[in-house]
C-alpha cells in the first residue's frame, strides 16, 4: 500500500528518494511523486503509473536539492492520476508546504468545505490535500513548521503517516504518525523517514520508530520527537536486522517464485530453536505466559486477514486436533467491531505477515482495550503489531516481497503446528504422539523440496487452467483452508475468478457452476476422509467438469479420476497442508505467467493494507 520516503542530508535527494520508492514498489501502488527543496525553491513531480515513469520525468526535468519527500500512492479517494498523486501542496498562493500521506482522513469533506470557503484552492480529489492546506494555514499564522503541523493534526479524524516539507522553512522535514507506520533512519549527517524500514535499509541500520501521536522534526544535524500531548520524547534507537541480498531475486524471474522456492528453509527457520525433542514438544521464548497460564486456557481466538486468515484456519484444525481446545478464527475486520465474548481463559492471537495490517492491528487493540492479554504471530520484526502485542512468536521468514503471500503462509502454519503441539503436550497429547508430530515436522522441508521438483508437471496443468474464466478449489477437513488459499492465489495474480469450498459443501450450490469450461482443483491427499473425496470427484466428473487433483503419490485411483494429477509425497496428515499448498502456489504462478500478468505487482492489490 502507500509508501513514504523522506531524505534530508548533503547528497542529492531525488535519486535516494526514487531508490527508496523502488524498494517499496512491492507493497502495491498506482502513482508516485516527489517534492524536493533546493533552498527556498520547491519542485514537485508526480506521475500516475510506475516509479519508472516518475524517474523518466525526473530525468527530463530534474528536481535538485538535498531535502525531499516522496510517495507511492494506492488510490483510495479519487482514481490514480497525476493530480491525485502525492505530494500535495497547500497554501493560497505559491505553495507553502508539500505533504505525502498514508492513511485515510475521514472528515476530509467538511474540512475541504471549510478550507475552500477560506480561499484555499483544491487541485485533487484526495483526502490528503486538506492536510496540506491546514498546515499552510497554520504556517500563515506565523508558526514554525513543526508547530504548524502539530497544530493542524488535531483537526484530522482518521489515520496518518505524514512527511512534510516547506520552502518557507528550508533545511527541515517533519513526520507524524497516527495509525500508519513511520520510521526515522539515522545516518551520518543525514536522516531518512520511511513508512517501511525496508526503504532505507541500504543507508542505515539505526532507526527510531514513531509511536501513535508522535511527530518528528529532522534537520541535517539532529532530530527531535514530540508527542501531541506529552511534549518532547526521548527516542528509542533500534537496529534493523537486514540482509542486503534478502530482497534480491537470486536468479528467479519473480519474487513470488523465489519465495515459493525458499519455503523448505522458511520451515526450518520457523522451527529453529523451538523444538524440544527430549520432551516431544515445542517452546517459544516470546509468549510471556507461564505454563500454568497456558494450562488454564479453554479457548483460542485467532484473528487475521487474507492469507494469514487462511493460515489461522489451518491452525484451528491443528489446535483442535492436537490440543482438543475449541478455536475460533475471526476476520480481524469483523472481530474488531463485534462484541465477541472473551473471558480470561481465552487466548487471543492475531496473525500478520507485515505486522501493519490496519484491521489486524485494530483487532489487537480491541482485545487489549478489553483488558485481554494479546499475542501476535508476526513476520516483520519491530512492526506495530509486534511492538504492541503483549507477547508473541516471530515467523523469521525474512522479507516477503511478492504481493501474493507464500512463504509467510508456510511459516505461519509451521508456527501454528508448533503451537498446537505445545498446547497439546500441556494437555492430552502423549510423548509418543508428540514425537510423531516432531518427526512429521522434520520431514516437511524435504517433502516441499520434492514438490518443487515437480514444477514442470504443474506448468502443464497451468495450461489447462489458464483459459478458464472461473475455477473451484475444493478440500475437506484440514485441506479446506488449503483450497481457500489456492483459490486466493489464483484470483490475486491471474485474475481468474476462483472459489474455495469444503468439498462436500459443493453440492449445496457451487455444483451449479460445473461445466466443461469450469475446472475443479481438488486438494485430496490420502487421509481419513479420502474415500468421501473420491466420491465428490465422481460427482464433478459426471457433470463433465475437468479435474486437477493434488494427491498422494502412488494414489492410482485419484490419478485415474483426474485429468491432471499433481502428486505430493506421502506425509502425515498434520503436515499435509504445508506440502499440498505448494503445487497450488506454483499453479497460480504459472497460470498468471501464461496470461501475461504482472505477478509481483498484481492490479489493485497492496502488500500491506494499512487502511480499513
Ligand atoms: C493484503 C495482502 C495479502 C495478505 C493480507 C494480510 O491483502 O495482499 O497477501 O495476506 O494483506 O496481510 P498481513 O501482513 O496482515 O498478513
Q: What does this 3D model show about the protein?
A:
The chain is an alpha/beta fold and 612 residues long. Helix 4 (129-140) crosses helix 5 (145-152), helix 16 (455-465) packs across helix 20 (576-594) and helix 17 packs parallel to helix 20. The strands form five sheets. An eight-stranded antiparallel beta sheet has the order 3-2-4-1-10-9-11-15, covered by helices on one side. The chain has a seven-stranded antiparallel beta sheet with strand order 5-6-7-8-12-13-14. Strands 19-18-20-21-22 form a five-stranded parallel beta sheet, sandwiched between helices. The chain starts with a strand and ends in an 18-residue tail after the last helix. It is 35% helix and 22% strand. It is globular and about 80 Å long. 6-O-phosphono-alpha-D-glucopyranose is lined by residues 305-308, 352-354, 357, 360, 403, 405, 605-609.
Bound molecules: 6-O-phosphono-alpha-D-glucopyranose
Strand content: 15-25%
Percentage of residues assigned to helices? 25-40%
Q: What's the alpha carbon Rg, rounded to whole Å?
A: 26 Å
Number of helices: 20
The average pLDDT is 94
Largest sheet: 8 strands, antiparallel
Extended strand count: 27
Give the helix/strand class: alpha/beta
Measure the end-to-end span.
12 Å
Low-confidence stretches: none
- Basic shape: globular
